[in-house]
Amino acid sequence: MNSPAISVIIPTKNRIELLQQALDSVGNQTFKDWEVLVVDDGSNNETVEQLLKISQA
Predict the structure, then answer these.
(1) Mean pLDDT by 10 residues, the chain (57 residues)
(2) In which domain, by residue range, is 43 found?
(3) What does the alpha-carbon distance between residue 23 and residue 54 come to, in Å, rounded to a whole number?
């Protein structure tokens, strides 16, 4: 498997609504050779659970 051409790194903490917007923005790009790395800084809400749901969709 080849590595993606672009890595998008998104830091987050307790901001699932903004994280969803950022992920949607990346997903809507015409260039598709990318990966997204989300770095959670200790969220204490539903951020991690929502990310797991998104990653399995």
Answers:
(1) 92 93 96 95 92 87
(2) 6-56
(3) 9
